[in-house]
Amino acid sequence: MAKTILIVDDSASLRQVVGIALKGAGYEVIEACDGRDALSKLDGRKFHLIISDVNMPNMDGISFVKAAKQLPAYKFTPVIMLTTEAGEGKKAEGQAAGAKAWVVKPFQPAQMLAAVAKLILP
Questions:
Q1: Could you tell me which residue ranges the Response regulatory domain spans (predicted)?
Q2: Is 16 left (phi over 0), alpha (psi -120 to 50) or beta?
Q3: What is the pLDDT of residues 59-78, one digit of tens each?
């Protein structure tokens, strides 16, 4: 059975690029347009990994990760932040919230897939 990944980004084109790369590697993909939308999708379904942007309207990525980690079903779900933010301060904030990896845009799909393969839950 395919592993499911939640992609959270306010850019539809970025969700599409990431989605194509992931689907090509055999993953199932669910999309959300911001943190609030993503939280509504954390409804007990099994997600093997979450990929989230940092800067989004309504609820930013770091607030979303903090909220997701409060939910028992998603406490251990690995999170990759995919963002234009390269600053150490933001990275530290992301790690404190529970993000396991930080991929800076623009990214190479192969680089992102390598991070996914390393972190995804069995």
A1: 4-120
A2: alpha
A3: 999 999 999 999 999 999 99
pLDDT in tens, 30-51: 999 999 999 999 999 999 999 9
- 2-29 in b/e form (b: 16+ CB < 10 A) is ebbbbbbbbeeebbebbbebbeebebeb
How far apart CA 83 and CA 24 sit, in angstroms, is 22
CA distances from residue 111 to 1, 19, 93, 103, 114 in whole angstroms, order as listed? 24, 14, 22, 8, 5
Q: Strands 49-52, 28-32: parallel, antiparallel or unpaired by DSSP? A: unpaired
* Dihedrals phi, psi of 35, to nearest 5 degrees: -60, -40
DSSP assignment string, 47-105: -SEEEE-SS-SSS-HHHHHHHHHTSGGGTT--EEEEES---HHHHHHHHHHT--EEEES
Closest listed residue to residue 4, CA positions, set 43, 71, 49, 61: 49
Class of the domain covering 4-119: alpha beta
- The domain segmentation of the chain, as residue ranges, is 4-119
